[in-house]
Queue: 2 jobs
Job 1
Amino acid sequence: MVSLPTAFIFLADLGHKAGYRFPSLRLIGYVGEQMSEEAQRHVRGILGDVEIKPLAYSSADAGLMGYQCQQAGFGTYHLPTDFQYVEILDPESHAPSPVGQIGEVVVTNLARRSMPIVRYQMGDLASWLDGACACGDPNPLFRLAGRAGDDFKVGGGFIAMRVFDQALEAAGAAVSLNYVVEVEDFENQMEIRLQVEAPEPEQARDLAGSIREAVCQRAPLIAEGLEKTYIRDFAVGFVPLGALPRSPITGKVKRLDDRRVVPTAAPASS
Ligand SMILES: [Zn+2]
């Protein structure tokens, strides 16, 4: 099967609800977005021991930017140097990141002439890997490290979306890994709401407390904010499978909805 991680998580959740498995399913190939290790285990835990592989790191605009080999580990890709020039740059200084240091992926497609892609910011984070790949392919390797801006500010630090994947995985198959985190401001106080799809939303309510606790454990800044009351509430709620809005274009669930971000005003016309 080939599809988006959002769709495979949804399929696994439906399978869990209906007690249905796919005995002949051998390989899941995903594209379009990154799939966390937690999401992969969630899908495997329900659908069985299937192989899960990212087919490629690509985008509609920039084309293929990475391909895997048998040796490439989780999130690791070869760069197709024949037609793609990729830079990994420090987000602050824009200087090239040394091997092993995470920076922003900036791509120049060397083949597209009619609609040039020149130093295009993908919005993804990655780092170069050292040395040659065991497969013998001389093309360099890089490892993706999530989306740039895929975290949100609380107090003096940042919360990575990963902590929600981890907390939800710990709650077991009764909750999905398709979720959205809503962050909103109310007169100097912040509210965080975690909305999770669940096969049986009513029954999943019993898990709200332990999920909340698991998130606070992994993100002490949230616990601290609640204690010091600059976070007025951190609520965990459940909705039916498929209920969270999907992008009509890509089919993905947008996991972070930070409503504190004020859209940039259009320049005033003179
Ligand atoms: Zn390789």
Job 2
Amino acid sequence: MDSIRLRPLTRLFLALFLFFVSVGSSFAQGTAADPSKAGVAPGATAAAAPAAAAGATTGDPAAIAAGDALFKGNCAQCHAVNEVVVGPALAGITKRRPMSWIIPWIKNSSKLVASGDEYAVKIYNQYQKQQMPSFQLSDAEITSIIAYTTSQEGVGAPAAKVDGGAATADGGGAVAGEEADGGKSMNILLIVLVVVLIVLVVTLVIIANIMKDVLRGRKDLDGRDREVMEQRFDFSKIYKSTAVRAIVGVVFVLAVLYESVQGAMGVGLQQGYQPTQPIAFSHKLHAGENQINCAYCHTSVYKSKSANIPSPNICMNCHSQIKTESPEIKKIYRAIERKQPIQWVRIHNLPDLAYFNHSQHTQVGGIECQTCHGPIQNMEVVYQYSPLTMGWCINCHRETPLNTKGNGYYDNLVKLHDTENGAVPFTVSSNGGTECSKCHY
Ligand code: HEC
Ligand code: HEC
Ligand code: HEC
Ligand code: HEC
Ligand code: HEC
Ligand code: HEC
């Protein structure tokens, strides 16, 4: 064998190979150049590390998606990630503050300000002493919100727009490091991996072809060897294979089944239901900004089974004086003149087969409205926050300890429970809160 003769196909692959190698290496350079382009010193990764340790920058897509929804529901009216709205831009917050500060701040910022926390007081004064509302969010929910805001840093806004005041106050570390964050570099890594894979495949094909060419030159091959050598990859074989057909069929059937089960589970679920109301009444304005107590309007919520919807008379306590010229308020006057109720659209509605009592939960159990109804005080238009399924009721009954303090009625029951299995708390379900007849007539 004197020289290797390259066939046209091999030449084509060789050309492709060279192309991918050059593309691949320029990508690799791109990644290396990227951080310096963003002005990040080598220290930036070190700076990002404590934030990740705090659990805030976990790239977990589920947490980010949950944080996205929570952020839009609770925070978006006052905050954006990359610009100042009512409150500061949240970009770089994990670099400014540890999670151990962020969580209590979001739960109750005024408490932190009142405690004299230096940073809290500073930012409170900086934003004209506007009070950020308190949120009944769990630590995990707050962590997911921060994971979401961190993932949005630098998206859709020039870096220079990032809140000058708060961001630079703590050493300007906020802008740096943003571009180096999780999402982007993951993507680049993926692209590089794909390119490497393609290069590998092309290399293998080239090697195979060259070896074939070499073999072709040899005379000592018998018929079967030649057959193996000349074998061509045959797509129709894959297509005809029963195994492949069976697998594709099973996957298809499973996908259809999964979709229909998901669909069936959702039948009758009203979570997120947000009808348009006849008057543009805003809980955000009344319960949020003007801090009117829920029970001022929903007068029976602590006393009886149902929370009532206020009659127009209650509105008139204020609106006989306030905003009397507003067209929306005139609708209240019209209802009163015509002696017709305002036709509010009902949002929460359990089927008749279930029994639910507000006073049992709000007065006796001491549960906040927001636990079941979400951040009503931030809702412009009310929507159904919880699923209101049986599983939802039961889960909470299983997990929530019964409020037995100072209630003599429970003393013996608790004693009995503690001697039998003191390790588990005395929950609503320990007291029979998961018995069918408690909730079903
Ligand atoms: C009604 C408006 C409002 C809402 C809603 C709101 N905030 Fe704030 N937030 C503020 C204001 C104003 C400040 C500035 C401090 C102050 O004045 O108390 C602030 C400050 C902050 C800070 C400190 C920022 C920094 O740069 O140090 C964080 C973190 C924060 N908010 C997170 C949140 C999160 C998370 C939510 C949603 C769960 C939320 N906020 C909802 C108004 C709001
Ligand atoms: C100024 C009176 C007023 C105050 C204060 C008020 N609400 Fe309401 N609420 C209404 C009116 C009117 C409706 C019916 C229209 C609507 O759905 O927006 C309503 C509807 C609701 C609904 C939906 C009812 C349904 O149809 O299922 C819930 C839940 C609710 N309020 C909870 C609260 C909570 C929690 C608070 C306190 C944070 C509160 N409200 C404070 C007047 C008030
Ligand atoms: C405790 C006092 C109080 C009660 C009760 C009350 N409101 Fe209001 N309402 C206010 C205040 C304060 C404003 C804000 C006025 C402003 O923006 O200057 C307002 C604003 C409004 C607006 C916005 C008007 C506009 O055009 O900007 C509507 C609509 C409204 N209320 C409807 C209602 C309805 C319906 C009820 C009865 C279910 C009700 N309010 C009960 C105090 C009250
Ligand atoms: C344990 C969960 C839970 C808590 C806590 C709770 N609610 Fe409800 N709320 C519900 C459910 C479930 C319904 C639907 C009831 C039905 O259809 O019979 C409802 C319905 C309502 C309605 C519509 C009218 C009605 O009674 O059907 C209003 C208004 C309301 N809630 C206000 C409040 C207010 C205000 C608070 C706090 C003081 C509160 N809720 C606390 C679960 C809760
Ligand atoms: C956020 C938690 C939570 C949710 C959600 C919840 N409950 Fe409860 N429920 C409680 C607590 C706590 C008590 C015990 C109150 C007490 O007696 O101290 C209770 C008590 C009850 C009781 C009385 C039980 C007894 O032993 O006498 C009934 C009935 C009940 N709930 C029905 C429901 C129904 C129906 C739903 C769903 C629509 C529901 N609950 C959703 C927390 C919850
Ligand atoms: C804590 C309250 C609670 C307890 C305890 C409870 N349920 Fe329910 N159940 C509900 C609620 C609320 C619904 C309505 C849910 C919905 O509309 O999705 C419901 C719905 C149902 C339905 C569906 C009815 C329909 O038409 O869709 C059945 C069946 C049912 N329950 C059976 C039971 C049985 C059997 C038990 C005892 C093992 C039980 N439930 C215990 C609250 C409860």
